[in-house]
Amino acid sequence: MQATNRTTYAAVPFLIFGIILITAFFLKYFEPMLPDVLRSWADHLSIALIVAVVIGLTYEYTSHLFREEILKNLLHDSQEQVYQALRAYNVLTPVEVFRLLKEIASQINQTPTLLYPARPESDEYTFTESMEFFDTLVKMRTKEIIEILSTWIEPNSHKNLKYLASDFIGKYQLTEIAEELRRQAEPILHAGDLSEADRGWVLNYIWAYSRCEKPMYKILGDIMRTTSDHEIEKWILFLPVQIQSIEIATMVNDYLERDTIIADDNLLLVIQAVAALHRAQVVDGVAMLKKFSQRFGPHHQEDVERIWRNYALVPEELKGIFLQS
């Protein structure tokens, strides 16, 4: 319908010139029948109209050719861009991309992760700080990526592949294969003998599954409230530094409400977690630390001000907060 309208509008100038030309011929035809006074006027007018039509038609035709050339060039450029995009799309299929990731992850000693920052005092490193490419790829080719990741989380897979796969599953909430993560990780976790080699991928499996469940982080929150494993607490307490959400903030709050004693190094992680959540405006960190000030001692006052300063926050908000504990 739009193309028909454009065609109609393009024909309007030629229609007008046609009417003018008919008028000129009409005057020329009836000129001998007119009185002498009007005959000269009609002669000049008809010639002027014919000249105007010739000039107008020439201009319109030239403009038409010019516009057509511009459109051809634009069409060619567009076709080239589409061709290049399709070419890149065909090369960078999920199979090719994840094959490359698999080769890299399987051959290095460090554990690749999608989350930033990577955990300090560990062998983790952030695989990429820009996720735009993967955001688009997962959105457009979800089914293929799920099929690939399902092979990465097989029991005999390399631990780096397990970790990276669970990062993808958790980050993009690929619920179709989340249950398999729980099925593998829970028995190992509940056995109570979590080795250092397995701790990373097992806890990451639990985290990824927990991001896919409803309500989010239910299982992870339960573990946080009940575990007595110092290293598990430490692992979970670093999550707020990487991901800021109200569900994570609730986990930290529930952790501080426990009756058990919290190790001093984990209390420092709590302060860091609250600072990250406060900076992201997820929670009022000052109010949370004041609420649980009895958990901390005067020796934490300098730590809380230092951590607050590291997060570009105002340490004066916390002046003397733990000195009265």
Would you give an account of this structure?
The chain has 325 residues and is an all-alpha fold. The protein has 3 domains: 2-91; 93-213, no CATH class; 226-325. It is 70% helix and 2% strand. It is built from 15 helices and 2 strands. It has helices at residues 2-30, 36-91, 94-107, 132-140, 142-152, 159-171, 178-190, 196-212, 218-226, 230-237, 239-242, 246-256, 264-279, 285-291, 301-310, and strands at residues 111-113, 124-126. The protein has a two-stranded parallel sheet with strand order 1-2. α3 (94-107) runs parallel beside α5 (142-152) and α6 packs parallel to α8 (196-212). It starts with a helix and ends in a 15-residue tail after the last helix. The relative contact order is 0.05. The model is unreliable at 1-7 (pLDDT under 50).
Write the layout of secondary structure elements.
Layout: H1 2-30, H2 36-91, H3 94-107, E1 111-113, E2 124-126, H4 132-140, H5 142-152, H6 159-171, H7 178-190, H8 196-212, H9 218-226, H10 230-237, H11 239-242, H12 246-256, H13 264-279, H14 285-291, H15 301-310
Parallel strand pairs: 1-2
